[in-house]
Structure to design on (150 residues):
């Protein structure tokens, strides 16, 4: 799994000119899933994201997690995170899972985040043409690949 995590002041997902989900202070998580991903990746990534200390404490130091701030999380599936640009100028998405594999893993990930965060998580709609708006706070953007674990 690849996740792009953005600390946001606000963000929303619009589908067909209608807002499906929105949050205020918290994290936007763009999630890419490949066939090799499994429950271990979900558990590791969930705990890493929810406990990532990227919010400022009272001294202005990034030392507080989204859970500590009672912030929200919005998760959007994004197969393009697995794009390969090695050959030519047209990206290949061969590593990205097909919906029959990706949807169950995406849904498990969302439920796992809700469990660790101890509150509902907002989502996009898998496979939909979404318009994502965000106000990146900082800006703070972190990329995590569960295969690298760094």
């Amino acid at each position: 799994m690849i996740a792009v995590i953005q600390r946001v002041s606000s963000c929303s997902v619009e589908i067909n000119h209608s807002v499906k989900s929105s949050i205020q202070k918290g994290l936007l998580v763009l999630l890419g899933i490949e066939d090799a991903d499994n429950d271990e990746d979900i558990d590791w990534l969930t705990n890493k994201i929810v406990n990532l200390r990227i919010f400022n404490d009272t001294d202005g130091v990034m030392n507080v997690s989204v859970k500590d701030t009672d912030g929200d999380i919005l998760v959007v599936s994004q197969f393009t995170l697995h794009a390969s640009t090695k050959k030519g100028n047209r990206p290949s998405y061969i590593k990205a899972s097909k919906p029959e594999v990706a949807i169950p893993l995406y849904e498990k990930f969302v439920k796992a985040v809700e469990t660790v965060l101890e509150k509902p998580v907002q989502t996009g709609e898998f496979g939909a043409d979404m318009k994502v708006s965000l106000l990146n706070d900082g800006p703070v953007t972190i990329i995590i690949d569960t295969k690298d674990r760094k």
Summary: The first strand starts at residue 2 and ends at 15. The chain has one domain: 2-145.
